[in-house]
Task: inverse folding
């Protein structure tokens, strides 16, 4: 296993996934190093969300191999839970727990899963809320926050588990334009701090500025991946060129 | 910068409100007048009956019989002891938590006081004032506990006391061989049977219903099939036939060595019956939880058990509080069916009162009284449930 960990914090080899007859992922190969930021883009239905959801096994892959931080994702429940502790996730629809306050949302998993003391978890929560810029919202309920604030709480909630990897599944797609920036700022700060991140997004500005690599998905395949510079200025495939011409005005 | 304007306050004069809502056309005027006539007729009839025809002496004369059945007079202090226990506990909750607990305890204390000044026998009045005093003492203790430093210890003790109070009450009421003479519940406890049936049914049918609901959604086919079969089987049978089964058939099926008391069997039956309905209420709540909640819980590392306990159930139960309380109320009223399997609960006692020559024909008076007793307690339940809903913030997500 040691050589595997050396080879990358996330290793995906020939990952396949079917929904019934529909072949959603058709052999994805992707390796990421610690501290890397990979942005995944592509048209809707291309499998990019499905792919990042296989990494913490919200979706099961049916063929191929996924190794996260040296642990292979199999049916073994202990492996899955171990990986989920190390992988934070941010959803398009936020998915905060509406019956808990912001602070409780953040401290829940550290207290119950990591067995942190409540006082300690609260202190961590406040630090994280300050980091994402909304310490004054700690005792409100998610329903009382704006979308951008909610999404930043989601980021804080994931960070409270001290994850090694963060997955972002279209984190700004459900937000008003004004709020997109505040969420992207929090993500940018996270990237600078050295977090390993996979980001599914249509925010090409963010990709250009923050990503180490950009991957383009289409019809269940990883069509092309490259540095942002090369990706945006010298796309190799026709499909990529078409996509970029439509998304960049 | 312009200051934000206050919302417009609309104060409609009574006359204009009447005109707008009740007399805005000839048709609605007609409806209003017809409705008023109907209401007046009914109220007049009721009032005339209640204040002139009805002979209410049947109620005070049989009050003890109705409420505590033929509980031996020299043992009645045990019933009062249980009432004291409940008074002290609710007084404590009132003093410590204020809010709705204070309102409930105030109603309890006020009614014991009012009853205490009524012309009951002196001993009864003494006990009633005792209730008042004990509630006040509990309230005072609670107010003191409010300022204590270690609140979590107090909270835990309080909950433990409430939980222990139920079996303790049962023991005190029923008696223990050698220490307290046994008073058989079945024909000597009166309305207390309805109350105990409701309390045990409410306390046990909710957890049981939750387990059944979770089981029905289980991924394991064996558990799912058993739970589904249970729910469908129990829901498809009238409660009364289940009670008959518990009272008669069970005797034939069970070995002689294991034959719980008829009252216990009746309580078990109503609990198991109610649990099937409860399971469906809870399942409705579970189905309303979006998939994203599960995913978010899994993504932060919670396993299936913690996800269910901490994320899914609190939201699911909160969403179906009205249905759950409706089921509680139905269960409470269904305890009157105990009468059909030879248990002397409130309704059954009223029938034996009517059988007494002295009180023959007082059927309306008795049934109105019983109706009022049930209504007051059911209304209390729905009042509490509205408060629970509000304090859990349903609908303000």
Result:
């Amino acid at each position: 296993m040691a050589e595997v960990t050396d080879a990358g914090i996330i290793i995906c080899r020939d990952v396949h996934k079917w929904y019934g007859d529909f072949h959603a992922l058709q052999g994805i190969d992707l390796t990421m190093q610690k501290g890397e930021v990979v942005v995944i883009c592509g048209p809707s239905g291309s499998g990019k969300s499905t792919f990042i959801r296989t990494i913490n096994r919200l979706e099961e892959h049916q063929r191929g191999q996924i190794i996260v931080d040296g642990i292979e994702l199999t049916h073994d429940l202990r492996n899955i839970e171990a990986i989920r502790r190390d992988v934070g996730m941010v959803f398009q629809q936020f998915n905060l727990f509406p019956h808990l306050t912001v602070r409780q949302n953040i401290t829940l998993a550290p207290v119950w899963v990591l067995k942190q003391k409540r006082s300690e978890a609260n202190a961590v929560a406040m630090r994280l809320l300050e980091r994402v810029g909304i310490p004054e919202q700690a005792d409100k309920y998610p329903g009382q926050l704006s979308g951008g604030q909610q999404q930043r709480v989601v980021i804080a909630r994931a960070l409270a588990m001290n994850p090694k990897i963060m997955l972002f599944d279209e984190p700004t797609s459900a937000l008003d334009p004004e709020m997109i920036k505040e969420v992207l700022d929090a993500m940018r700060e996270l990237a600078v701090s050295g977090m390993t991140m996979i980001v599914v997004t249509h925010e090409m500005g963010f990709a250009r500025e923050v990503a180490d690599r950009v991957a383009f998905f289409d019809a269940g395949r990883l069509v092309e991946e490259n540095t942002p510079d090369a990706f945006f200025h010298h796309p190799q495939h026709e499909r990529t060129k078409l996509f970029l011409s439509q998304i960049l005005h | 910068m312009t200051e934000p304007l206050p919302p417009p306050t609309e104060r409609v004069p009574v006359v204009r409100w009447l005109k707008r809502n009740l007399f805005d056309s000839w048709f609605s005027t007609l409806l209003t007048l017809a409705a008023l006539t109907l209401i007046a007729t009914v109220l007049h009839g009721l009032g005339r009956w209640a204040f002139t025809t009805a002979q209410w002496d049947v109620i005070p004369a049989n009050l003890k019989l109705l409420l505590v059945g033929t509980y031996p007079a020299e043992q009645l202090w045990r019933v009062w002891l249980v009432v004291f226990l409940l008074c002290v506990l609710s007084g404590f909750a009132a003093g410590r938590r204020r809010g709705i607990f204070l309102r409930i305890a105030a109603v309890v204390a006020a009614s014991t006081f009012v009853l205490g000044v009524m012309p009951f026998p002196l001993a009864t009045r003494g006990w009633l004032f005792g209730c008042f005093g004990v509630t006040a003492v509990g309230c005072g203790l609670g107010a003191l506990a409010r300022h204590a430093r270690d609140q979590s210890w107090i909270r835990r003790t309080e909950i433990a006391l409430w939980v222990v109070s139920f079996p303790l009450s049962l023991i005190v009421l029923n008696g223990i061989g050698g220490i307290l003479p046994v008073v058989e519940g079945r024909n000597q406890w009166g309305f207390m049977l309805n109350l105990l049936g409701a309390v045990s049914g409410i306390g046990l049918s909710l957890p049981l219903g939750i387990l059944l609901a979770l089981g029905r959604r289980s991924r394991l086919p064996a558990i799912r099939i058993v739970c589904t079969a249970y729910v469908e089987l129990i829901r498809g049978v009238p409660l009364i036939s289940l009670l008959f089964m518990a009272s008669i058939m069970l005797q034939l099926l069970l070995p002689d060595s294991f034959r719980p008391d008829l009252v216990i069997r009746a309580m078990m039956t109503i609990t198991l019956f109610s649990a099937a309905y409860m399971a469906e209420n809870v399942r409705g709540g579970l189905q309303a939880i979006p998939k994203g909640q599960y995913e978010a819980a899994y993504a932060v590392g919670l396993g299936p058990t913690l996800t269910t306990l901490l994320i899914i159930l609190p939201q699911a139960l909160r969403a179906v509080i009205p249905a759950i309380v409706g089921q509680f109320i139905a269960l409470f009223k269904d305890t009157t069916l105990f009468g059909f399997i030879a248990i002397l609960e409130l309704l059954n006692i009223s029938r034996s009162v009517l059988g007494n020559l002295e009180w023959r024909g007082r059927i309306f008076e008795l049934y109105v009284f019983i109706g009022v007793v049930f209504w007051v307690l059911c209304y209390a339940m729905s009042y509490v449930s509205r408060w629970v809903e509000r304090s859990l913030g349903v609908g303000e997500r």
Notes: Strands of chain A lie at 10-19, 22-32, 37-41, 63-68, 71-72, 87-90, 165-169, 196-200, 213-218, 221-226. Chain A touches chain B at residues 56, 58, 77, 81, 84-85, 87-89, 91, 93, 95-99, 108-109, 112-114, 141-143, 157-158, 161 (CB under 8 Å). Residues 1-5 of chain A have pLDDT under 50 and may be disordered. The CA atoms of residues 80 and 188 of chain A lie 28 Å apart.
